[in-house]
Each structure stands twice: as C-alpha cells, then as structure tokens.
Amino acid sequence: MRLAIVVQRYGTEINGGAELLARHVAERLARFADVQVLTTCAHDYVTWRNEYPAGEERVNNIAVRRFPVRRTRHPREFGLRSEWVFEHEHSVADELNWLRSEGPYSPALIRHIARHEAEHDFFVFVSFRYYLAYHGARAVPGKAVLIPTAEREPAIGLSVFAPVIAGARGVVYLTPEERAMVDGITHRKGLSSVIGVGSNMPDRPEPGRFRRKFNIKRPFAIYVGRIDPNKGCAELFAHFQQYAAAYPQGLDLVLIGSTQLDVPSHPRIRHLGYLPDEDKFDGMAAADVLIMPSPFESLSIVVLEAWGLGKPVLVNGRCDVLRGQCLRSQGGLFYETAREFIEGLHYLDATGPAGVILGRQGREYYQRYYTWPSVERKYRDFFERVSREPAGTAMAPLPGFVARHRRSLPPARAVLDGTPSGAVLR
Amino acid sequence: MSDLHVRSDSVDVEQIMKQIRARIREKRGADYTDAELQQLASVKLEQFADPSNLRSDLLEQFRQRSNEPSTYHRHRGPRRWMLMLAHPILKRVQKQLMADLNLYFEIIHNLVVEVTRLGIETQNLKMKVEALSSRLDFDERRAKSLEGVVQYRSGTTGTTGTTGTTGTGTTGTSSRSRGWVPIPPPPKIGPGAPVPAAGTGQAANGGASTSPAGAPGQPGAAGAPGQGQGPGRPDGRRRRRRRRRRPGQNLADSPNAAGQSTQQSNAPADAGHEPPEGDDGPDDEGGSDL
Fold it and tell me: Which end of chain A has less Cβ packing within 10 Å, N or C?
C-alpha cells in the first residue's frame, strides 16, 4: 500500500499536537506501507515562514517532500477574518478567504497532489482546518482520508468543511466525542474509525533522578504542555492558589513547558521550562497527579502518557473529550469550578489508594486502546476496510459565483453551539 | 461529613465526583452558588462601607464638646449672676466632669483600638482553625483509608487487636499515602472457625498479644479476637512469654540466663519444667513457655 501523508509542518523539532501525531503515524504506518510525507518548508506555525529547504529529504527514515509557502500569514488579517466568519453572517467566499489567510498557502503542494494522484493509494490529510487539507482533499476526493483533529472550536462550524469531511473516503477520529461532534455538523455517513495515537514512552522512567536533578522533595502535581491562557493555565494558577491556601500541607505544582503567560510567584508553584522527553517522563512518574486544565482538546496525549505511567489525572470537565476520557477509563477526576478543583486535587492527594487505583485503571485503559501495537493494528484494519469498500457520497462541489458571494451563512460559532455536546460514555 | 473512603479494588469516577460535590455542599453549610456567596458578601460589605453612614468627624465633635464654654457662661442676667456666685463650686464640678470625660474618652478610644485588634486576631484564629480542621480532616481520612487497604509485608507475623492496629497506624503516619497496595478486607471468622477454649492463651483478653511482631512501628495484620492464639497456633509458631522475676532475683538467676545451656532454654516446656512463681496464670496452660 502506498500512502501519502499531507501535513502543514513536519520535522523532529516540531512538537505541535497534529504535527507530532502525523510524524508518529507516518513512522508507524511505514511498517506495513510505503509512506511519503508531503509538507511545506514552514517551521513557525504563526507565520508559515519558509525555513526548511524545498525538495526531498528523509526524516527518521521516512521520505519527506517539502514545498514552499507562497504567502506568509498575517496574524492581524487572519484575526479580523476569523472574527468575521465566526461571529457574523457571511458568505462562502468569506470562508475561502479565511482559509487562504490561515494558510499555509502552498499551491505547489496542491498541484503536486493532483498530478501524482495515481502514485498513491490514499492521501492522509492531517488537521481539517488548514488550506492543504481542504484543497488537497478536493483535489483527490476518491483517495482522501482525513484525520480532522477537530476540537470544539468555531472553525468546525464553517460551511466549506462539511462537504469535504462528508465526502472523504475515510475519516480517522481521535475520540468518540470528536466523532459525535464532526458527524453531527457534517452529517457524514461514510466509513470512519476512532483510533487515537500511541506514545513513545520509556520503559523505566526514573522519578528519583528527576527529584534529585531539580531538588524537589515535596509531593507535587504536574502540568506538562505549553503554558498559555488558551490552555487554561490562567485558571489553573488561580485555582491552585486557592487550593494552596485551603490545604497548606497539600501538593505543590510543577510546570513543564515553554511559557507564554506569566507564572505567578508562589512558594508552591515551580516552573522548570521546556524539558527533554526523558526529564518530562521522569517528572510525570515522580508526580502524584497530572493536571490538564485545557478547555479545548481533541486528544490529550499527555493525559494518555500519564495513564501509561499509572498516574491519575485531574482534567477540565468543560472539555468533552477530557471528561469522556476520564469516564471511559475511570482513570481520573474532572472539575468545572474552583471548588471542584480544590476538592478533587485534595481527594487525589489525601486518599492515597484512590489515586493509585485511578492510575491503575487509567493504565489498563491506555494499554487496551493506546499502545502502539493496538493503534497500528487499528490503522491497518482501517485501511483494509477503506480499500475494500467503495467510495460513499461524492464531495459536493462549491456553489457558483453568485451563490458563493451571498452572505447568508450563519456565524460559525452559532453552528457549533447548535451541535450536541457532552462526553460519550460507550 | 462525607466519608471519602476507598475500600474496593476499583473506584467509580462518577461516584467519587458525587462524593466530592456532596462534600463541597456540606462545607458551605448551605447550597449557595459562588454568585450567591459573592452577593451576600457584598451586601455585608456595603452595610459597613457605605460612606453616607460614616461619621468621619465623630472624634472631632467629641473633642469640641469637651472644649465648649461651661453651661453658666451661656446665660445672662440674674441667672448668670447666680451662676457666677456658684462659679468656684461649679468650676470644681466642671473640672471633675472634664477629667471624667477625658478618662471616658481615653477608655473608649482604647476600647475601640482593642476591639479592632481583637477582630483581626479573631480572623487570624478563624483561619488557623480552618487550616487545622482541614489538616485533621486529611489525617482522619488518610488513617481510615490506610486501615482499609494497606497490604502488610509478607513474612511478618500478624498480631491481633490493639497491637496490630498500632503497628499499622505507626507505619501509616510515618510515610505518605502513596504506593499502597489495596487488598480485600480480611476474611471473617465463620461459625466453623476454631474458637479457643475459655481461658486458653490471651484470646480471652480480647487478643492482646505480646508478640514481638506487634511492636509499634512494625506492620502487623489486624486479626479477629482469639484468632491464632493459645496452644497449637495455626502458623506453627510458639508464643514467647515474658517471665516475671522474683523479688531479689537478678537476670543471672533467670532460667534463660547466660551460663545455662541453650539446649536447656530450648527444651520442651513440658519436660519437667515447673513454671516459676509469678508466671502469667492462664498462659501456663498454653504449654509453650519459649
């Protein structure tokens, strides 16, 4: 089987969620398929500036072909267009302009996909919301497989995405909540599967080494990821300071990740900055609990990693995906208010065996569904099914010039608000 | 208070969340939402901080009043004359009154300062009490959860009743509540279980044991009263009994003293051995002295 994976950025230095997923999937699918990655020369996801050389190279033994980005992204223009299509009645043309301003705008890559359609059995497009996935899938509708990585955010409510997702040959979702949301908006009936992703965790993390290296003696909760208001970190700090006042002998908070938000100066909050994977996993193994405050997640790999290490988690219950993961795995607690955060964290700290049992249940869930052999087997089964079954509904074409410019589409946020929400328990 | 207690091998997240929410409701005393609490707090604050009700010149008024001319200075004619006649007496009275007023003013001022200080101190104490109660709550729940789920180290003989519990408690408090391995609750003794005869061993005493395994700080399994005591213990081990020395007898005179053969000390108890005076009576029938 010959597969092309299309993703906006690619490289070992790139740790964005979707890009990391694309790299891991490519490396795993290469075990049973001939995989080529088609991507851009961009490294920076804000501007899509060309930084890698165009052409072919190999990354971890995977063939990668890069195409230049013709136009960098202007954050201000993109912000204005986003505000317009998310909050106001607009037209299809407005949405297409929004998509183009988001980028990465690389017509050369789209042309390559159209010209080399015959060389691949399937094109796997990662992240529905980018220019490449939309125009690439439209270029090869009969061979398009989507991994949408959709979060509950307004972009999924834009009307241009519905026919592309509904008409794709196959769709791979990361969680049942993502499937419920996307299928609810796009009314997709075709073949799809919830697969998720594994993680390359070390066999034996060393929590003691982490404690020694960073001189951490007290028990602590850990947050791993970008320290960003969009990830719920401001709320995390506010909640944790209340917790620290209520429980002076409770857990400390250790933060790992690059920061785009001021970390409060507090004796029980410690920021270690961005750390290599070895330290990260050692830290997670040393922690009592992992906290994930993000309200928008399509799949939190770090939560799965915590379960893989047998650690319980405390997550933001307003995120359907995280809440659903906790309920299905029985591996963690969730909160919606400050009081629930405080008491939830106290529960995990004070009721030691409960934390151990939750961690064990999470580990069982991880081993059942999210280890690489399991994920690999599901991908293999999925592609076999997609190969066997004929293509479903055709991708609906774009409307004509006049209809495309008629401002009659509802705001994307309103569309999203009208879709069912909540955790999927089965 | 909700019992945040874990006893089984698996836990239900939804059940835990219900417990946590119930606990939050109980802590509040009433089921106020955060918004309601904010509203109540602001109403109370307005009552005290409303500028229209504040008398910022209160102190000044009080001082002025004390400096006002005496009552008779404000009158004219014969009334004033009469008052002037009585001036020396009135002056003394006024002086006395002013001294009293000054005293009252000082006392009230000091009282205000003291009340303010006490108010602040009360707040501090309230916060301390809250912190202590949360710590107490934490300790109670940790102790409860540990009692139910700790698995004891293999190879350590279990004791019964008080001693075993003490061992567990000591272990629990000396280490944080992590890394515990949950086990199912200990098996109950059914009707068919061996029950020691009355007066055999210390079973009749509610299971108080002198086993070294039950020493404080050593993990020990909490057993049912009377279980594994008396003759023919199920684990095949003999119970060590402390001998009481006679008055005037020193350590060298005791049967196990140095100088006596180890063989003798290890000899079977029933080989013509007479228990010394002062032995624990019921234990003698147990037959195992060493």
Answer: C
Complex prediction ipTM: 0.74
Neighbours of B154 (CB within 10 A): 5
CB B111 within 8 Å of CB B104: no
- Tell me the CA distances in angstroms from B10 to A352, A420, A421, B38, B141, one per residue in order: 13, 31, 28, 39, 18
Two structure tokens written together for B51: 């500028």
> What tokens were used for B90?
């009135």
What letters, b where the CB count within 10 A reaches 16 and e where it falls short, cover A360-374? bbbbbbbeebbbbeb
The A220-224 sheet, strands edge to edge: A269-271, A252-256, A220-224, A289-292, A313-316, A332-335
Using DSSP, state whether A146 is helix, strand or coil. strand
**In contact, B177 and A353? CB cutoff 8 Å:** yes
Q: What token pair was written down for A63?
A: 């063939």
Which chain B positions have a beta carbon within 8 Å of A347's beta carbon? Answer: 4, 16, 19-20
Task: Give per-residue pLDDT as tens, A214-257.
Answer: 999 899 999 998 888 888 999 999 999 999 988 888 899 999 98
Q: What is the DSSP-derived secondary structure letter of residue A172?
A: E
pTM of the predicted protein model: 0.60
Touching B: A residues 308-347, CB under 8 Å: 326-327, 330-334, 337-340, 343-344, 346-347
Distances (CA, A) of A92 to A406, B244, B247: 8, 99, 106
Q: Of A219, A330, A339, which is closest to B13 when you measure between CB atoms? A: A330
Helix (H, G, I), strand (E, B) or coil at A123: strand
Q: Any idea what DSSP says for residue B214?
A: G
Q: Are strands A55-59 and B159-160 parallel, antiparallel or unpaired?
A: unpaired
Instruction: Quote the tokens at residue B98.
Output: 């002013």
CA distance to A233, B77, B281, per residue, from A72 (Å) = 29, 101, 96
Segment holding A234, helix H or strand E: helix A233-246
User: Over 50: is that where the pLDDT of B175 sits?
Assistant: no
Nearest to A343 among B20, B135, B177 (CB): B20
Q: How far apart are the first and last CA of chain B?
A: 49
Q: Is the peptide bond before A104 cis (omega within 30 degrees of 0)?
A: yes
Rounded Cα gap, residues A249 and A419, in angstroms: 43
